């Protein structure tokens, strides 16, 4: 049953006190696994933003509602890879995608955190929003059960390309889960366009962090 009003949640301090003296690594605990994330100060995409923490926490707490086991999951704008790693721990076949300059750090985090698991090994692929979708991810071959996106909307110029990418991958039968910190009027304008295109439910709000978590599905024609 879809809840009419979103659950009000708090992002829990799921990170573990650092054992290493390196400034660039954060330790998190989800689904019984310690996850070590290397951030990079060079790229926006290589920092763990609050939407990623919110979605990771939500997936961990709502495994019956969103069972990822053996499901095909695509993360767009995967950044540091935290959400993809959590989805992998939960048993999904994960494809983590981002811009070329983020892929090295993304691959490093995903491989080091999933190498000793029996889980399906995640795949890391380049995906620039709105570019080469038909060539690189032809509809005939690629169908995803879940699309995951966190903090993909902020002050950038690729919002139309992002929306087009979400529409491209969110086929009938696909569930899109998008968590985002809402900061700017442009974020809310994007949200309005998003809600006009998809059947949308706000699953949870994290008011202290200004994060909303939305579930969207394709509208039946």
Describe this structure in words.
There is one protein chain. This protein has 221 residues and is of the alpha/beta class. It has a single domain (44-218), classed as Rossmann fold, CATH 3.40.50.150. Helices cover 27% and strands 26% of the residues. The chain has 6 helices and 10 strands, in the order βββαβαβαβαβαβαββ. It has an 8-stranded mixed β-sheet with strand order 1-9-10-8-7-4-5-6, sandwiched between helices. The protein has a two-stranded antiparallel sheet with strand order 2-3. A hairpin with a 4-residue loop joins strand 9 (198-206) and strand 10 (211-218). The longest helix has 13 residues, at 185-197. The protein is globular and about 45 Å long. The model has no long low-confidence stretch (mean pLDDT 90).
CATH architecture: 3-Layer(aba) Sandwich
Q: Main sheet: which strands, in order across?
A: 1-9-10-8-7-4-5-6
How many structural domains in the coordinates?
Answer: 1
Mean pLDDT reading: 90
Secondary-structure element sequence? EEEHEHEHEHEHEHEE
Q: Tell me the name of the CATH class.
A: Alpha Beta
Write the CATH homologous superfamily. Answer: Vaccinia Virus protein VP39
Radius of gyration using CA atoms only:
16 Å
Using the alpha-carbon principal axes, give the shape.
Answer: globular
Low-confidence stretches: none
CATH topology name, in short, is: Rossmann fold
Structural class computed from helices and strand pairing: alpha/beta
Most strands sheet: 8 strands, mixed
């Amino acid at each position: 049953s879809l809840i009419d009003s979103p659950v009000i949640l708090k992002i829990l301090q799921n990170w573990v006190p650092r054992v290493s003296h390196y400034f660039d690594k954060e330790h998190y605990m989800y689904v019984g696994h310690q996850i070590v994330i290397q951030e990079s100060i060079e790229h926006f995409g290589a920092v763990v933003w609050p939407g990623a923490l919110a979605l990771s926490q939500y997936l961990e707490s709502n495994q019956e509602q969103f069972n990822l086991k053996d499901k095909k999951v695509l993360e767009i704008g995967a950044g540091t890879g935290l959400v993809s790693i959590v989805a992998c721990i939960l048993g999904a076949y994960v494809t983590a995608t981002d811009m070329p300059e983020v892929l090295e750090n993304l691959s490093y985090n995903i491989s080091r955190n999933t190498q000793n698991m029996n889980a399906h090994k995640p795949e890391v692929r380049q995906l620039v929003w709105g570019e080469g979708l038909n060539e690189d991810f032809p509809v005939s071959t690629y169908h995803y059960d879940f699309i995951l996106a966190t903090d993909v909307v902020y002050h950038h110029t690729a919002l139309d390309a992002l929306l087009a990418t979400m529409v491209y991958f969110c086929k009938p039968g696909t569930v899109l889960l998008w968590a985002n910190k809402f900061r700017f009027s442009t974020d809310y304008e994007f949200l309005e366009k998003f809600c006009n295109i998809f059947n949308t439910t706000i699953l949870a709000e994290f008011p202290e962090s200004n994060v909303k978590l939305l579930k969207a599905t394709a509208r039946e024609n």
